[in-house]
């Protein structure tokens, strides 16, 4: 009969421990609800803003850093080294021939203009007087008749034609000599680059 009060006291102690554990696990009636439960309710001071518009007084986050804009890298200057190993003789001959013709035309026109300028300025008359004063004979000399405009144009034209032929032949010979020299020691080196 002595074991009955001990068993009853142990059972009451177990009941009191279980009641205390249930009180600790249960939430208090005055505790705040989690934020997820209140997500459907709007704050009293918050106003709805239209989509796509930013509020005027909105502050940027202080923790974000501005991204520095890096300058564009400078483009490197491209350079190319080329070697002229061979020159076409026929192309050189054609080029020099055309340049010689242009030079001959300029020479003829310049000589005609010079003759007309001397005639208009009276240079021929002064030369005639100088020659007649130095001479002992009574014959008069007319330089404008001895060196007429036609004779000047004819002589200058012949001179221009001869120069054209000579320059063309010299250009062809120079191209042939350059090709022979380029085979022996190499051609002329050219360095090409972009504009700075």
From TrEMBL:
InterPro entries named among the record's database cross-references: DUF3566_TM (IPR021949)
Domain DUF3566, chain residue ranges per copy: 78-194
Zinc is among the record's keywords: no
Chain intervals for the UniProt region annotation (Disordered): 1-73
Pfam families linked: DUF3566
UniProt feature, compositional bias: Low complexity: 1-29
Residues spanning the membrane: 95-118, 152-178
This protein's UniProt keywords: Membrane, Transmembrane, Transmembrane helix
Name of this protein: DUF3566 domain-containing protein
